[in-house]
Design brief:
Keywords: Metal-binding, Zinc. InterPro entries: Alanyl-tRNA_Editing_Enzymes, Thr/Ala-tRNA-synth_IIc_edit, Transl_B-barrel_sf. By secondary structure, the chain is an alpha+beta fold. It has a domain of 123 residues: Elongation Factor Tu (Ef-tu), domain 3. The chain has 5 helices and 12 strands. A 6-stranded antiparallel β-barrel has the order 2-3-6-5-4-7. About 5% of the residues have low confidence. It binds zinc ion. The site of zinc ion (ZN) has 5 residues, from helix 3.
Length: 287
Amino acid sequence: MAATAFLIAPTTPPDYFRIISPTLSLPTDPQISTPVGLLACQRDPLLRAIETSVVTAYVSRPPPPQPTAGKKAKKAVLAPELPNEPLLHVLLHDTVIFPEGGGQPTDTGLIETTADGSAWEVVQAKRHGGHAVHYVKVPNGIDADTALLAFQPGAKVTVSLGEKGYERRYDHMSMHTSQHLLSALLETRLDLPTLSWSLTGYPNPCYVEVPRGMTQEEISSIQAEANRLVFEGRKVHVEVEELDSPQEQARPVQKLESGRSVGKGLPEDYTGGVKRVVVIDGVDRNP
Ligand SMILES: [Zn+2]
């Protein structure tokens, strides 16, 4: 008899997201923005849209062009090119759009303002002081200050990834968890710490940098074990807690000469009050 496989749409298990500090909770006040670490996209990474509301918004104008002083300015690798025009910076109560951070590139998506049914393109999201700020494109023919009127504090909106945004994020998050698994195996089986890594969207390759070359046998054994763990269906969950001490909040991450962050630690641009640890059952715990 032929084997039959059924593919069911994946859903996030109810115990995926675990708040382990008794003092930490999700803000219920719609005028407060949910801190990065507790965002809807981090509680349920398969969520494509939520209804929420505006906390605050303002117009951000591009800085005047800088004369290039011989040397080329260093460009951020992960951030998409921003249009050289005013953008709206929008802070929502909660979001499914992941703001760039921890090595994972920004999501893109849409905000639909309920009152007028308009859809606004989110070209990027970034952390500002531990909160996710959506960079919203102002449509042609509308000036930024007029556009801003749609984003009054309290205005109801639906924020979504859209089909393209969801595909982009699915790729990023799958590769990110894969990197955790690969780095854990390299470290525990071969004593090879991850010096740096890079996460980019398909078709660009992602990489993990280790201190020495690997033999073909080493590569095959790590690959076989990683695949075995994936096919076993090892569970992944996330534990969040409050940063326990001011020292921990301020602890700098060791850096390579190249300026890339090294090893396990909170990202250096992390200024939120929440610590998040990704656990792969029986394999790894990693911020
Ligand atoms: Zn990570």
